Amino acid sequence: MKALHIHAGPVARRHIEQHGLSPHDVRLIPAAAGGPKGLILTHLDRHLFGQWLTPTRHTLHLVGASIGAWRMATATMPEPAKAFERLAHDYIHQNYEPEAGKKMPSPQRVSAGFGQALDTFFGADTDGILSHPRWRLHVVTARGRQLLRSGTRMRTPLGFAGLALGNALSRRSVGAFLERNVFSSAGEALPVALRDLPTARWALTAENFKPALQASCSIPFLLDAVRDIPGATAGAHWDGGLVDYHFHWNFNSMDSGLVLYPHFQQSIVPGWLDKSFKRRHLPTPGLSNMVLLAPNPDWVAQLPGGKLPDREDFTRLDFPQRVQLWSAAVAESERLAQEWRDWLQRGCPIAEVRAL
User: Fold this and answer.
1) Does the model's pTM come out above 0.85?
2) How many DSSP H helices and E strands does the chain contain?
3) What is the mean pLDDT of residues 250-264?
4) In this structure, are strands 353-355 and 4-8 parallel, antiparallel, or unpaired?
5) CA-based, 20 to 30 A from 288: which of 16, 100, 234, 336?
């Protein structure tokens, strides 16, 4: 049984059929939100950013939300393969003890602990991340509007209730409650037209790198919003996955190059609240230039626990059980990287590429 499925949109498929696939073809890499699910991509990330993509000399755009933002920031560190190994270890071993008398830790405690984890992980590497000679990092957050603008305890539940109701009617209504904010390192602009939702673009700097990254990972009600990120419009910023869960963007608006998407599933869900709206998961012409790498669902069913790591494991398992299960899943995921390497070495046979 194959562990890895390779999918491609029609434009990308024609390119592979005629030219194969090389790192020089890739212009943009998105990285999805999804919490622990991203762990299954550890070995793929180590190979892609630590080996396969290193010969490139053109600008490569790395776009991420939530755990995807952490992954893409990791890719720009001095030794990406080692950094991704450390990311998996640190993510697996995170543990936030609840306050006395409580069953779950408060958002304030989780936010404080997570902020310390980011400080420890990135340390003094921020300047190098922001000045990578070829790779441009884009971190996505969701800034609150109207009831969600200030992130107060009274208004936030009402705001998210309105967001959920509006999104059920139309994804465009998300823009009444949330604004997509894209924090980009210096260099070429993000080459994708973003007209589906209100969008603000800001420079990613040493001053706002950590606040933007923490905001991009701040799941409502589990972590506090990050308020007033330096260099951006004042307000409360939450998890970027609320607006761009899996980055179902109009990538076909790029003037050249392909999108390579290491993902933990085939479907690309636009926003976090779209998970139950299956029609919104279907491929669109905007994905025609995409090559997507995803685990075979049948292989996933044979992983320890019979599924990908997910956030429910935080409450379903105790800490030692969770560490053991997630570590085993990461170890098994080396097969994804090996099968990807094998496919490249065999000349990228088009017969093994599935429709996106």
Assistant:
1) yes
2) 12, 11
3) 97
4) parallel
5) 336
